[in-house]
Structure formats: C-alpha cells, structure tokens
C-alpha cells in the first residue's frame, strides 16, 4: 500500500527549512500532499492562491521535484479530515528548535485524539536551515537583504515583487 503523508502549513512563504522536511520525508513515504492552510488568525503576506503558486514554483520549477510525488493543495479543514480524504495516516511536521516542540507535541496529541489511526512524524531540517522561519524571511525581504540562503529563486522573486508594490 502506498504511503501518503500530509504536510500541512501556511507556507507564507516556503523556505529551505520546509523543503528539508519534504526531502527527508520522501525517504520514508511514497508521496506527500503539501497542504497550504487558508484558515487561522494569521495575517498572511500572500493570498492562498499566491502561496499555492509560490510553493508549486519552488518545488517543481526551482527544485525539479516530480509532480507524481508531491501534490500541492489548499485546505480549510482539520488536518485529520484531510488525512481521511486522501487516505493518509501520516502527518509531517518540522521542528526547528526546542521552542517548537511544546506546540507541536500538543498539536500531535490533539490530532491523535481526533483520529487514533494517524501518526505524526517530526523531522528536523539540516542544521543550516534550523534557524530559518517564514517570519524572518519576510523581514529580510522587507529590509532588502539577501535571501539566497533561505529560499528558492522563484520565492525570492515573489517576495521582492510583493515588497516593491507595498512601498
């Protein structure tokens, strides 16, 4: 049976930290659904459609991932409902630092209470990428800094365009 994992997040924008989690997870699952959330109280820089497009360009154009291995979707439901819809019993989550662990541990516990057949797999990005967060990437972009070590070429283009239009 094919192992499908759900990787939920806001991806506002996608970073090399997210991409590390995707690369590592492809070693243990057959395919990944990158589920871009459009719910929550976050003040997103990019619209849901822009985030989908940025993730697709980063994964398929910049990094040449195969579309049959990674599917990018938007969602506004419980992650456990998404798992049921796509017949997945694996949720992927990235961990950067100890500060992430408490929230992620609680989230995994709640998902387990909602559906005890679902396992959450925590993956850490490489040491070089553990400090990267979407929030820092946006701040560096807003201040005109070099983003090459933090995200892909097409993501950088989208960030530059966004901040040029907001000046």
Could you give the topology of this structure?
Blueprint: E1 4-9, H1 16-25, E2 31-37, H2 48-62, E3 70-75, H3 79-85, E4 90-95, H4 98-114, E5 119-124, H5 134-142, H6 153-165
Parallel strand pairs: 1-2, 1-4, 2-3, 4-5
Helix pairs in contact: 2-6
Tags for this model:
5-stranded parallel β-sheet, alpha/beta, Rossmann fold, 167 residues, 6 helices, globular
Total helical elements: 6
Sheet with most strands: strand arrangement: 3-2-1-4-5
Helix content: 40-55%
CATH C-level name: Alpha Beta
Can you write the helix and strand succession as a string?
EHEHEHEHEHH
The CATH topology, please?
Answer: Rossmann fold
- What class, by secondary structure content? alpha/beta
Q: Total number of β-strand segments?
A: 5
Do you know the CATH architecture? 3-Layer(aba) Sandwich
CATH superfamily: HUPs
Distance between the termini: 51 Å
Shape: globular
Residues in β-strands, percent: 15-25%
Low-confidence spans: pLDDT under 50, at least 5 residues?
none
Q: Which whole number gives the mean pLDDT?
A: 93
Give the total of domains: 1
- Biggest sheet, open or closed, and with what strands and sense? 5 strands, parallel
Radius of gyration, in Å, reads 16 Å
């Amino acid at each position: 049976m094919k192992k499908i994992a759900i990787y939920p997040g806001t991806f506002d924008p996608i970073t090399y930290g997210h991409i590390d989690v995707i690369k590592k997870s492809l070693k243990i699952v057959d395919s990944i659904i990158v589920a871009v959330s459009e719910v929550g109280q976050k003040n997103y820089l990019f619209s849901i459609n822009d985030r989908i497009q940025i993730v697709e360009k980063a994964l398929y154009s910049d990094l040449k991932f195969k579309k049959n291995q990674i599917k990018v979707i938007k969602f506004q439901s419980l992650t456990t409902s998404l798992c049921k819809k796509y017949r997945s019993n694996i949720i992927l989550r990235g961990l950067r630092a100890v500060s992430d662990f408490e929230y992620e541990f609680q989230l995994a516990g709640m998902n387990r209470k909602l559906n005890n057949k679902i396992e959450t797999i925590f993956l850490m990005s490489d040491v070089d990428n553990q400090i990267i967060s979407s929030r820092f990437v946006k701040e560096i972009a807003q201040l005109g800094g070099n983003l090459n070590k933090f995200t892909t070429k097409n993501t950088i283009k989208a960030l530059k365009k966004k901040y040029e239009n907001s000046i």
